[in-house]
Design goal:
The chain is mostly helical and about 150 residues long. The chain has five helices and two strands; from the N terminus they run H-H-E-E-H-H-H. A hairpin with a 2-residue loop joins strand 1 and strand 2. The protein is elongated.
Length: about 150
Amino acid sequence: MKPVLFLRIASVLTFIHAALHTIGGVFGSPAPGPQQIAVSAMKANTFPVMGFTRSFWDFHMGMGLAASVSLTAEAILFWQLASLAKTNALILRPILITFTVAYLAMSVVTWTYIFPPPSITEILIALCLIGAIVTAKSPVPVAIASH
């Protein structure tokens, strides 16, 4: 496979990750019982922070939405990088290595503190990025016609 295909797959996986995170994680409803009690407590207790009154629920929602925005931006970026990879994938390697390390680290955090399904998606995205890194080649020199 070529880096373009790996990056397109990473883009689609990242967009799905963003959508599911937003639908289930940010806007999902807590289950009755302990989850609802915890959410109610997070919403009810407010405190001053840097001149603003916020609750832990505000921070929870803000960070959840920030993650959704970042994942969506990364999905778009991977699609754009795939277009750039058509001409010179080799120069993208440092960027792809950075994202690979970040996704692997994020999968450890997600597995440890949240639950496995998002972590598995992040590992799949990292594997696609590794595939793009490994298959990246130098641009093919274009022959210049002599007169």
